[in-house]
Structure formats: C-alpha cells, structure tokens
Amino acid sequence: MDVATQVLSEVRGQVLPVIRAAVPSVVRPESAPDAAVGGARAAGELGLTRTEFARAVQLGIVRAGPPAPGGSPRYARAELERIRSAEGFPEALRERVEAVAGAEAAGAVLGISPGRFTRLARCGHITPVGYRINRYRVVVWLYLAAELREFADREPGMLRGSAPPADRELLAAKADLRPRKWRGRHVGLLLRRTADPWERAAVLASVLSEEELREAVPDPAERIVLAALAPPAPYGHPQIPAAAAVAARLLRAEPADEVHWYRTSLDFALTGARGQSKSTGDRGPT
After folding, report:
1. InterPro entries from the xrefs (predicted)?
2. CA–CA separation, 45 vs 75, rounded Å?
3. Alpha helix (H) residue ranges in 59-126
C-alpha cells in the first residue's frame, strides 16, 4: 500500500462511518422559560472560556438544542446538568478541550523538539483540531493536549530515533498532510451533528471547489439547497480578507484522490437526500 492510499484510508476511517450513521436525537428544551440558554451563558455555567466552549461544541462534548428564532444556538439545561454531573467536572472537561498552538507548544507537551513534532504532524501521525492565521498570514495549527499525551503513551518509539521509510518518502516529496487530516476530522465532526440527509450532503459539498461542485451536482436547484445548508466556517476563522483567503484554502479538498472520495461520498449522500424529498417533500428539489 503506497503512502497516498494509506492516508486516504485513514481519512475514510474518520469520515465514512458517520456518513451512513444516524446521530442521537438533539436535546429538547423543557417547557420552563429558561430551559435553554445561549452560548455565552452556557460557557459561563460550565466554567469555560468562549473558545473552550466552542471547541467543546465542535467536538460533540456539548450538544446544542434547537436554535432560537434568530438562529443562535441554544443549550438545554438538561444538557448542562449532564456535563456538570460527569466525574471530575470541571477539571476533566477543561482537560478534554485544552489545545496548544504551533509546533513549539505541541512539542513541549510531547517532550520533543519543534522540528520533530512538525515532521510527525506533516506526515499525518497527529491530526490538528483547528487553526488560526497569524499576522504574517501563516497557518498555525492547533492540537488537543489530551490527544498529544495519548499519542506519547501509544507511540513512544515515534518520539525518538530516525524517521521511518514512509515518513522519509513524504518528507522528500515535501508533503504536508495536516490540511487533509484536519479536513477529514472537521467533516466527520460536522456529519455527526446532523441526521438530515440534505444537511449531510451540504457538509460534503462544502469541501469541494465551485468547479468540482458544478460537475458533481449539475442541477442548479440542488446547488442552491446545498449552499443554503452549508456549514459556517469553523470558530476562529479569520474575518480580515487577506487572512481569510489563506484560511479558505484549508477548507477545500485538493489532492485528486481526496477530491474523488468526497465527490463519491456526496453522490451517495445525495441519493439518500433525493429519496427523502420524493417520499416526504420535506426539503430539497424533487
């Protein structure tokens, strides 16, 4: 198995199981007036910063309920109580969402040099959980501290010694698998948050370029539906145009085999979505 095939297999492992799977029902608000609260209040009640809370939602640790009339997410009291009643709260919760930025900080968690950490991340051994664009318009990848510690426990040999042959091959080709691995994770997390067929199709469509999407979905009416249901940019996505342009490239699949896999997955998802529309007329072209 060549390196590209191996990486694609890993991404499939992250995303494919949730393309078909149904997700648990969202938490429904109780009848009391303040049975659900907004994000800022929910973060405060859980003892999290705004960024930590956003990451908890991203990872599915905190599940959003039905949105407010204006579209803002709401969080049921029952959901907050579920999290507060978990063992080790609040320290355990903070540990799950703790993230470090960049190779120097991540390497320090693992006890290795920034250079060695960069090699491990570029070769796909560690998957980023997010990104930010610094003032020099350079991508700074974010990593979950808990996952770094788990990696150190699981793969102590990777922290010492020479790079394995597969890594040397990737390094010689100047490969960087961080964007691709992050996209696979991001798409998988988004798919887990909805069971709606058209919303799931929109998630898969969101990583394709406009040209690829037109080829994959020739019906303009369907493309309008997918655009309307497209997920928002990840929390922390820059608003300044120059930085946003750099970050936008991270959101699109690039290697041909990756693009092909997302197009195939989108076709599968659209088949189910069209079938639902024909039977119920709930959403999307018929």
Report:
1. DUF6397
2. 11
3. 77-84, 91-97, 102-110, 114-122
pLDDT of 28 above 60: no
| Interatomic CA distance for residues 29 and 74, integer angstroms | 9
Query: Angle 216-179-137 (CA atoms, 0-180°, nearest 5)?
Result: 115
Instruction: Report whether pLDDT(207) > 90.
Output: yes
Residue 244, number of CB atoms within 10 A of its CB: 13
Reading the block at residue 175, the tokens are: 């490969």
Q: Give the tokens for residue 218.
A: 């020739």
- Residue found under tokens 């996952």: 147
Cα–Cα distance measured from residue 267 to residue 272, given in angstroms and rounded to the nearest whole number = 9
**Residues of the chain with pLDDT > 70: what percent?**
85
Q: Cβ contacts of residue 246 below 8 Å, gap of 6+?
A: 133, 137, 138, 139, 238
Span of 65-79, 95-109, 139-153 with lowest mean pLDDT: 65-79
Looking at residue 15, what is its pLDDT? 52
Query: pTM of the full predicted structure?
Result: 0.84
* Cα–Cα distance measured from residue 63 to residue 83, given in angstroms and rounded to the nearest whole number: 10
